[in-house]
Amino acid sequence: MKEILKVAVTGATGNLGYSLLGMLGRGLVFGMKQPIQLNLFDIPQQSKMLEASVMEIHDCALPLVKNVVATSDLSVAFKDIKAAFLVGSVPRSKGMERKDLLAKNVLIFKEQGEALDKHACKDVKVLVIGNPANTNCLVCSHFASTIPRENFSAMMRLDQNRATAQIANTLGVPPSEVRNVFVWGNHSVTQIPYAGLGCVTVDGTPKPIVECLDDCYLNGAFVNDVATRGAAVIEKRQLSSAMSAASAACDHMHDWWHGTDPGEFVSMAVYSDGSYCSPEGTMFSFPVTIENKQWSIVEGIQLTYDTKSRIFKTARELKAEKEEAMSLVCGGGGDGDKKAKTEKKAEPKKDEKKADAKKPEPKKEEKKADAKKPEPKKAEAKKPEPKKAEVKKPEAKKPEPKKPEPKKVEAKKPEPKKEAAKKPEPKKTEPKKDDKKPENKPKK
User: Fold this and answer.
1) Catalytic residue at 187?
2) Spatial distance between the Cα atoms of 374 and 369, rounded to a whole number of angstroms
3) Which of 187, 252, 254, 258 is the catalytic position?
4) Which of 37, 57, 230, 308 could bond to 67 as cystine, CB 3.0-4.6 Å?
5) Rounded to an integer, what distance in angstroms lies between the CA atom of residue 106 and that of residue 140?
6) CATH entry, 154-330, from 3.20.20.80, 3.40.50.300, 3.90.226.10, 3.90.110.10
């Protein structure tokens, strides 16, 4: 008998999580001979609903489910798990902007990333479903620093399934006859459903989709219908997609676990290496093949100008989300804690070098220069005579006759300055200008 596989589901009492549990228990993801333990997580306010979910799983009498754990403690939910479905997130309410949604959810996924890092197996496969999925996934992976980034993926399979269904319905064939339709980019309205490499079997004969449907449809209604399908479901149902999303989550993890068929590729949002003009360091959806639980981006796809321009648009959105998210969870730039710390360490070194270069100058002059830096450019524009007149400032401080002399010697050793001090009346009128230009000495 196989070892029991521990699987975590967060947001287990929600519509999507509830729909997912039965599919996992029937072996649709990890196999019909793989026994599993379901670790169900939700917030404390949902404790009664969690208890009800456990009761229903027991009532299903699913032979593959050997144990069920219900908890509101992430350390318990993620203990020794090999697979995680991160479903739970704050839903988008009416009038809420995407930035507001991001702000609420990144903190949730930061906490979950830290818990995974401490308690999950290091080869755990983590599928992030809660929206905004791509950036939530990035945050989660960032805070699970000892788990490889390749083990994190955001769900784009729902968008791929929607695209496949649109092509099948348009051509009047079952979805099973459509292959290699996938999606680039972000799980948002900027996503790019792509049928350029897809094929469809019509009357037993495989044909390229681009030969069956014109560019006007593939670059217009097709893209728009897939990108806005989620909103259309909400409008009709008054709730977000649950059954179709749970099915897509099963498809995604099944292929990740068991691999793709030869010649077949699927959509996964994975950590970008910059391929196909994608922004490096984001979770970007690519067509991938999978073998031995390891995904590889399909290479060599020739993109049209229109597709590239759409990729640039979704890339900008993902970069903006990343910067916003990292500023919220790291309190700094878009690259997170580690970069911020190294930059802070590097800055003092630069300051030390500057300090070393200014050691010969008197300390009092350095302080004055630091306090009055605004007008260095004006001083550079009038270098010649006004600077000689500045020697009169030390003369004004007669109570301390010894201080002006070292300044004359150390700052500007040449003797012309002494001559400048002897000039009669014209330069007595210039101290007013000098009042505005005391900064020139330290700059020299």
Assistant:
1) yes
2) 10
3) 187
4) 37
5) 8
6) 3.90.110.10
